Amino acid sequence: MAKRTVATLLDMKKEGRRISQLTCYDYSTARLMKEADVDTILVGDSLGMTMQGYDTTLPVTMDEMIVYGRSVVRGATEQFVIMDMPFMSYQVSVAQAVENAGRLIKETGANAVKLEGGAAVTGQIKAIVDSGIPVCAHIGMTPQSVNVFGGFKVQGKGEANAERVLKDAFAVQEAGAFMVVLECVPPKLAALITKKLDIITIGIGAGSECDGQVLVWQDMAGITRGVSPKFARHFAEIGDAMINAFKSYDEEVKAGSFPAPEHTYAKSDCSDEFLAGLDKKYN
Ligand code: KIV
After folding, report:
1. 22 lines ligand 1 (CB under 6 A)
2. Model-level pTM?
3. 247 C-alpha vs ligand 1 centroid, how far in Å?
């Protein structure tokens, strides 16, 4: 499959072909997503939670994003890779946003950046796009504003909120974004936004009528332990499979049944006479 681009993704929207997106944070997983032919990969700042064990995405730094992003880009050679801009890497000023978007692209080799916010960040979106970097916006439930929302909650409930989310969608399109993530937006509102916009909508907890869908890969593969969001369907139980593998390894190491002869380099081993000589020499 050829490398996905902004143009090929926009063509998919025009032709009514849905776009798949998964988060990813490392080379090995990116290779598997390439083999699976996933369209786009988001190096999400959700890595703060999935890879680093924080309760929110807020502590993630630019330098950390770059380390994870570079690894993904090396594995996902045919996917369109989007780098999340971490908390406080773009909110301070338009100049800060352009500089950090530039670093993310230059130092990882990714194809676009994503930032959270609607009308409030259109200055940043416009300036980043003007500097030659495609932008994916992110509206609805924006996890970097968890302290404003008082938790990870559905956004756009009620008529006034619904209209605000729709206005945010128009604002980011007007500013030049080519894609927008709609997170935890009621499904009929997400469908209306998708119909109204020329740019691509990617839903997460926003129903099936968006142009594409994104999930955090550990959620959809059944790796995340504890409470998982309602929308995070498990497409496999890889977490259980990994626990079983770790348990079997632990048991076999302790029982001495691993490694078996077929897992050793016995053919190139030293002769019994030579080893007996060493045994005697170092007595
Ligand atoms: O950081 C992330 O993974 C995200 C997705 C959940 C959309 O922003």
Report:
1. no
2. 0.95
3. 31
